[in-house]
Specification:
Layout (H helix, E strand, L loop, with lengths): L7 H14 L1 H4 L1 E12 L6 E6 L4 E6 L1 H4 L11 E11 L4 E11 L4 H16 L16 E6 L4 H13 L4 E6 L7 H15 L4 E6 L13 H8 L5 E5 L7 H5 L2 E2 L3 H8 L3 H34 L2 H4 L2 H59 L7 H38 L2 H4 L1 H38 L2 H4 L3 H19 L2 H6 L4 E4 L2 E2 L11 E6 L2 E6 L2
Helix pairs in contact: 5-9, 6-7, 10-15, 12-13, 12-15
């Protein structure tokens, strides 16, 4: 019998028909691990291998299926696939055509949530440096939420109870469903760009991850990140976390908590104002008392009680000076007269003695044999003698004349003719000093009174509340920081703290076999043992 040969195409068509007739291959559910994952840039189709420990099967996922995924498939990811098996004609191989893909062990939304969370964290959208401070005393608060839900009622009730001075503006939005994402983005943009808000609250009640998914969308996170108005995210309840919570400037565990974080408690503010007012008044009164005591001490000084003491002392000094001056002038006149008389006597005695001595010398020279012409010598000596007498007489008369002029000058001096004038000059100076002291003391008292009046009329006295604004802002900022750092809040979000002998364990390598571990949850503690 002669064999019948068929073409490769015919064989491939036959195999394809066989596979299509098998209903079990038209709808298969396969578990495996992704490898060699690639996505075509132009078409968007995805190609990969699905494998287990023994076998590998090629798989393809068209763009219409891949575009609906909430997460991005990666190599090594264990997945669950629903699809069908068909032949790829060009290569004559069978492959798995994917209609639905999900991660084995986690839902698609959980995977997408974690992937977007990691991506935005790497971009820095969660960093504290980008967080804006929530105003402590807002005048206008906006709320983006459903107008029919319990969230808006809780927020309005809380804000009106705590801070009735605040205006609340509702920006109604869908918070669930396919249209919710675009609606939320639009309302946040409208509130931020067209209304002068102090704070914006984005809120909704609790629900499943599907119900809250609109707040996990990238476009919502981007709108929140670029919003100029500080945003408080209050989506779900304590255990519910969304991407919006991480991007927002502040996360509130519930809508009610968002209202509490958005505004202060008016009674607490009033109490703080009263306390600061009392402290300010006490400080001012203390300052007034201290200044009053200083003023009384100044007024009690002898300078102000007996100002004439300064004048009297200076008058005594003037009297003493006058007496000393008169006594000194009399002594000076007496000494000058005595010196003048003594000088006159010395001049007369000296001239007589010189004449006597020269006569003796002349008589001796006349009998001497040394000189050939004694008359000439005599004449020379006589001329010198008479010249000397003339000089002595002229010098003495001139000296006497100068001393007499000096004496006359003393007698005619101002201090002898009008000694009272000196006293009057000194007295005038002391009167001026007295007047300056009195004027200075009055000015000092006036300045102190003006300082006290200025202190009473100052802004800090008339409006002590103004001191509080900056202090309250700083206080609220520190409270917020402490709240963020509260380890109990971290535990409430689903984390635990493990301790061995009271010491916190952060790494598994720090544990040993048979160690007794105390695990702290938000609602209690559990003891366990390492095996």
């Amino acid at each position: 019998m002669e064999e019948e040969y068929i073409s490769v195409t015919e064989l491939t068509n036959h195999i394809s028909k066989v596979l299509k007739r098998d209903s079990n291959l038209r709808k298969v559910f396969v578990r495996g691990e992704i490898s060699n994952f690639k996505q075509n840039i132009s078409s968007g189709h995805c190609y990969f291998k699905l494998k287990d420990e023994n076998t590998i099967i090629p798989a393809v996922m068209y763009y219409r299926v891949a575009s609906r995924l909430k997460f991005k498939p990666k190599n090594g990811m264990k997945v669950l696939i629903r699809g069908k098996v068909e032949v790829y004609y060009q290569y004559g191989i069978y492959q798995l055509y994917v209609n639905k893909l999900s991660e084995d062990g986690l839902g698609d939304l959980h995977i997408a949530f974690e992937q977007l969370k990691i991506e935005l964290k790497e971009l820095g959208w969660f960093d504290e440096a980008h967080k804006k401070e929530i105003p402590k005393f807002p005048k206008k608060v906006g709320v983006v939420t459903s107008p029919e839900g319990a969230a808006i009622r809780d927020i309005i009730t809380t804000i009106k109870r705590r801070w009735p001075l605040c205006e609340i503006i509702l920006f109604p939005s869908l918070v669930q469903g396919n249209m919710a994402m675009n609606n939320i983005v639009k309302q946040i943009y409208t509130a931020d760009s067209q209304f002068d808000l102090d704070t914006l609250i984005v809120a909704r009640g609790g629900g499943s991850i599907e119900d809250l998914w609109s707040f996990n969308e990238r476009s919502v996170a981007k709108t929140i990140f670029h919003c100029d108005t500080p945003i408080i995210s209050a989506v779900g309840h304590d255990i519910d976390f969304t991407i919006a919570d991480f991007v927002a400037d502040l996360r509130a565990p519930t809508p009610t908590a968002a209202g509490e974080l958005a505004v202060p408690e008016i009674n607490e503010v009033k109490d703080s104002l009263n306390n600061l007012n009392q402290r300010a008044n006490k400080s001012i009164n203390k300052k007034q008392e201290d200044n009053g005591e200083k003023l009384e001490k100044i007024k009690d000084r002898n300078l102000f009680i007996y100002p004439e003491m300064i004048y009297e002392k200076k008058a005594m000094d003037l009297d003493n000076l006058k007496s000393r001056l008169l006594s000194s002038s009399n002594e000076m006149i007496y000494a000058s007269k005595f010196e003048l008389d003594s000088l006159k006597r010395r001049l007369i005695d000296c001239s007589n003695k010189i004449i006597y001595d020269n006569n003796i010398k002349l008589s001796g020279l006349k009998g001497s044999v040394i000189f050939k012409n004694p008359n000439r010598i005599f004449e020379n000596k006589s001329n010198k003698y008479f010249e000397l007498i003339y000089k002595l007489k002229y010098g003495g008369d001139n000296l006497i004349y100068k001393k007499e002029l000096k004496l006359l000058e003393y007698k005619n001096s101002f201090i002898f003719k009008n000694p009272k004038k000196l006293f009057e000059d000194k007295s005038g100076k002391y009167l001026k000093i007295k007047a300056r002291l009195e004027y200075g003391s009055k000015n000092l008292l006036r300045d102190k009174k003006e300082d006290l009046k200025e202190l009473k009329d100052s802004r800090i006295i008339k409006n002590p509340e103004s001191i509080l604004d900056k202090k309250i802002i700083y206080l609220g900022k520190y409270i917020d920081k402490l709240t963020v750092l509260d380890p109990l809040l971290t535990i409430k979000r689903g984390y635990t703290v493990s301790r061995v002998n009271g010491k916190v364990i952060s790494k598994s390598k720090d544990l040993k076999v048979d160690d007794e571990v105390e695990i702290e949850f938000s609602d209690g503690k559990v003891n366990t043992k390492v095996i």
